[in-house]
UniProtKB/TrEMBL annotation:
GO terms for molecular function: glutathione disulfide oxidoreductase activity. GO terms for cellular component: cytoplasm. The lineage of its organism: Bacteria, Pseudomonadati, Pseudomonadota, Gammaproteobacteria, Candidatus Competibacteraceae. Keywords: Cytoplasm, Disulfide bond, Electron transport, Redox-active center, Transport. NCBIfam families: GRX_bact (TIGR02181). The keyword Transport applies. Has a glutathione-disulfide oxidoreductase activity in the presence of NADPH and glutathione reductase. Reduces low molecular weight disulfides and proteins. This is Glutaredoxin. It comes from the Bacteria.
Amino acid sequence: MPDIVMYASESCPYCRRARALLDRKGAAYTVLDVNRDPRLWPEMSGRTGRDTVPQIFIGDQHIGGCDDLFALDQRGGLEPLLKNP
């Protein structure tokens, strides 16, 4: 399974939804909490061009936010990404 990284905030409902979906898929992931470490905000923005959380990466691929993750799953594109290292 590829490395999954999510820039997130503990209080963000979209972050919780994205984590719940990944949990249902049995995916292991790393959460980078942007509120606990404010230096992560500019890092995230630099990598994504976005300033909202969550921002999700599977391997080197930027998936986007919560809605993007759910749309990818609806199209059947999430499972193959989770299986490929």
